[in-house]
Design goal:
Its EC number is 1.1.1.35. This is 3-hydroxyacyl-CoA dehydrogenase family protein. It holds the Pfam family 3HCDH_N. α7 links the parallel β7 and β8. The chain has about 280 residues and is α/β, with parallel strands linked by helices. The termini are far apart. The protein has twelve helices and eight strands. α1 packs across α2 and α8 crosses α11. About 50% of the residues lie in helices and about 15% in strands. The protein has an eight-stranded mixed sheet, with helices on both faces. Bound molecules: acetoacetyl-coenzyme A (CAA). The site of acetoacetyl-coenzyme A has 17 residues, from α2, α8 and α10.
Length: about 280
């Protein structure tokens, strides 16, 4: 199947980035949000990121315009998915919200439509089972900032069939991304490897081994990471990090995933990183 039209559900940090890359690579995109003001915010972020690409001479004004013209906004899931070949869901990491969204999508989308979730921690097999077509359900895990990061971690649920995988792999390549297949397991590969590193960095700060700045310097200069783990934790959101560690801890019942007490305290204090203006660092 040749995917031409996609619906992206959720216009937050991940959703607007996903809509941006689909539209920029020739797909027609229905961007679905719950309120006009959220949709407006998503479109203005996409415009800002396209402007940045024009300034860096990665695209021209014509490409920027055609990308924006390829995105249509919908405030109703049933309307937005009724004639698409693929749905990519990027709503908050909350099982109740995802359940309600996928039930509506399942009722309204055509039979051939492939279902992809950008979840970073919820079981793909579990989400797939909410729908009447678990064989067409797959994880399409993008990374922030989506227009920049090359990876799509493609997560196969227990019932995902080979045809679905093949279409999603092909589509990811058309987005100029590198698809990497993994099987469904808590945290997949990306977060199973990343989150223990971030957690251990937070233990180092909590135990007074080094300051946040110095932990980050060690990992940036010694390990060539573009951002240190604590700046990255702020960028991802400390609440999101804590949630994912919870999924690993529960999923494997292994104490090695126990969240650092300092992480729990910072989330309790509302210091969630970039989005609240303060985490391990302060932001304007
Ligand atoms: N849209 C388009 N382009 C963007 C962009 C955006 N939103 N954000 C940055 N860029 C571009 C910049 O224009 C710049 O382009 P050039 O290379 O042409 O100059 C390039 O990306 C680098 O940006 P900056 O110069 O502003 O800053 P930087 O060099 O410090 O890079 C960064 C910023 C790309 C975020 C880099 O620090 C980085 O790669 N950090 C690690 C990010 C990471 O690990 N993300 C994964 C998080 S985990 C996740 O998302 C999933 C999960 O499940 C938790």
């Amino acid at each position: 199947m040749d995917v031409k039209k996609v619906a992206v559900i959720g216009g937050g940090t991940m959703g607007n980035g996903i809509a941006h890359v689909f539209a920029m690579n020739g797909f027609s995109v229905n961007l679905i949000e719950t309120k006009q003001e959220f949709a407006d915010r998503a479109m203005s972020t996409i415009q800002k990121n396209l402007d940045r690409m024009v300034k860096k001479e990665k695209i021209d004004e014509g490409k920027k315009k055609s990308t924006l013209d390829s995105i249509s906004v919908f405030l109703d899931i049933s309307e937005g998915v009724k004639d698409v070949d693929m749905v990519v869901e990027a709503v908050p990491e909350n099982l109740d919200i995802k359940t309600s969204v996928w039930k509506q999508v399942d009722e309204a989308a055509p039979d051939h439509t492939i279902f992809g979730s950008n979840t970073s921690s919820i079981s793909i097999t579990k989400l797939a089972a909410l729908t009447s077509r678990p064989e067409k359900f797959i994880g399409m895990h993008f990374f922030n900032p989506v227009p920049v990061m090359k990876l799509v971690e493609i997560v196969r649920g227990l019932q995902t069939d080979d045809d679905t995988y093949d279409v999603v792999e092909e589509t990811s390549k058309k987005l100029q991304k590198v698809p990497v297949p993994v099987n469904d397991a808590p945290g997949f590969v990306s977060n199973r490897v990343l989150m223990p590193m971030i957690n251990e960095a937070i233990f180092c700060v909590g135990e007074g081994v080094a300051t946040a700045e110095n932990v980050d310097e060690v990992m940036k200069l010694g390990m060539a990471h573009p951002m240190g783990p604590l700046r990255l934790a702020d960028f991802i959101g400390l609440d999101v990090c804590l949630d994912i560690l919870g999924v690993l801890y529960e999923g494997f019942k292994d104490p090695k995933y126990r969240p650092a007490p300092l992480l729990v305290k910072m989330v309790d204090a509302g210091k969630l990183g970039n989005k609240t203006g303060e985490g391990f660092y302060k932001y304007d």
